[in-house]
Amino acid sequence: MSPHLLSVDSLNREGVDHLLRVAAQMEPIASRQQVTRVLEGAVLGNLFFEASTRTRVSFNAAFCRLGGSVCDTTGFTFSSMAKGESLYDTSRVMSGYCDAIVMRHPEQGSVAQFAEATNVPVINGGDGPGEHPSQALLDLYTIDKEFQRLGKRLEGAHILLTGDLKYGRTVHSLIKLLSLYDPLRITLVSPPGLEMPAHLVDLVTSRGHRVEMREHLGTDFSDLDVVYTTRIQKERFTEEMNESFKGVSDDFVVNKGFLDRHCTSSTIVMHPLPRDSRPGVNDLNVDLNGDPRLAIFRQTDNGIPMRMAIFATLLKVDGLIAEDLRPVRWFVPHQTGTLDR
Ligand code: NCD
After folding, report:
1. Dist. CA 10–CA 25, nearest whole Å
2. Do the beta carbons of residue 229 and residue 204 sit within 8 Å?
3. CA distance 228 to 70
4. Using CA atoms, how far apart are residues 336 and 143, in angstroms rounded to an integer?
5. Which residue of 30, 82, 159, 325 pairs with 305 in a disulfide if CB–CB is 3.0 to 4.6 A?
6. Closest ligand 1 atom to 300 CA
7. Where does residue 280 fall: left (phi above 0), alpha (psi -120 to 50 degrees), or beta otherwise?
8. Is 70 exceeded by the pLDDT of residue 339?
9. Sign of CA dihedral 299, 305, 311, 315
10. Domain topology for 8-131+303-327
11. For residue range 189-224, what is the model confidence (pLDDT) as tens digits?
12. Any atom of ligand 1 within 6 Å of the Cβ of 132
């Protein structure tokens, strides 16, 4: 694995499988049965220049659960970038303070540029509409775990990616990761103007996957194994897009009706979250709350073991976990959410 995680392009099948295995080993720590201190003394710098709840907090929690400590800054206003400091200078400065850095930034390519000035591992926590490799890894980990539970195989699976496939960085990373696996059937459905970039469709097709693009969700679907929905990334729209975009029509909505019509009891529904729950927005519908096929909170929980696996691998302590485990001593509820199944 490269010293950084900037794009899923740096991972081959072997590297991904390694991370899936290490993440599985992290489960007892992530689910608060055991503790480890393999990163005791290490410091993470978490630099978030865009809105975030789960990515920032789960990277933070994952590092802490490995025994490390975290320093973080959020937004441009309270960082020296507001005073005109370059990515290069910020990177060099942070390298003197931290052993690993996670960065989220609104510009595509910015995190890679930041990483050029440092030998400390840098993880891309989302660079504008570019990539979000750790999210794609936790998504793949979720699919793998859910398929094991359901007795399914990834080979030949039918995966629907829907929503904003143009600006949604999670699906850009995910489709590339999926393409490393045995031939899949991938269906892409997005509102007009928000289609998956052509170079990604070409890449996946050239790797032998069957890719189909549809104009809406109204037609018949068969054998869907995964329905992966995404939020419309309005904050990334050009002015022209802002003027022409009329909102998401009912034809694109994933709700209980869609699942009952087109899916089986073993279809899983995923979303990187946040979902926009404001009226009229037509993001993933809340009428699925409590439905066992809705995997979104199992997916967010999986962010911890996968992000722990990423840190442990980049900082080369992945081989030490098994011999550095102790039982937890505080109270842990049987299930963390009230709606969990
Ligand atoms: C996504 C992101 O920031 O790219 N969220 C996340 O990290 N889980 C998706 C989004 O903002 O819609």
Report:
1. 23
2. no
3. 31
4. 21
5. 30
6. 8
7. left
8. no
9. negative
10. Rossmann fold (3.40.50)
11. 999 999 999 999 999 999 999 999 999 999 999 899
12. yes
The Cα-based distances of 210 to 154, 202, 299 in angstroms read: 14, 11, 25
- Our measurement of the distance from residue 236's CA atom to the centroid of its chain's CA atoms, rounded to an integer in Å, reads 18
Please determine whether the domains at 8-131+303-327 and 134-298 fall in the same fold group of CATH.
Answer: yes
134 lines ligand 1 (CB under 6 A): no
Q: Is the minimum distance from the CB of 135 to ligand 1 under 6 angstroms?
A: yes
Q: Which residue has 């775990």 as its token pair?
A: 145
- Percentage, residues of the chain above pLDDT 70: 99
165 lines ligand 1 (CB under 6 A): no
Each as own residue / partner, the long-range contacts of residues 198-203 (CB below 8 Å, 24 or more positions apart, any chain) are 200/172, 200/175, 200/176, 203/176, 203/179
When the candidates are 3.10.129.10, 3.40.50.720, 1.10.1740.10, 3.40.50.1370, the CATH number that belongs to 134-298 is: 3.40.50.1370
- Would you state the pLDDT for residue 54? 95
Say yes or no: CB of residue 308 within 6 Å of ligand 1.
Answer: no
Cα 270 to middle of ligand 1, angstroms? 13
Q: What distance in angstroms lies between residue 273's CA and the mean position of ligand 1's atoms?
A: 6
Centre of ligand 1 to C-alpha 320, Å, is: 31
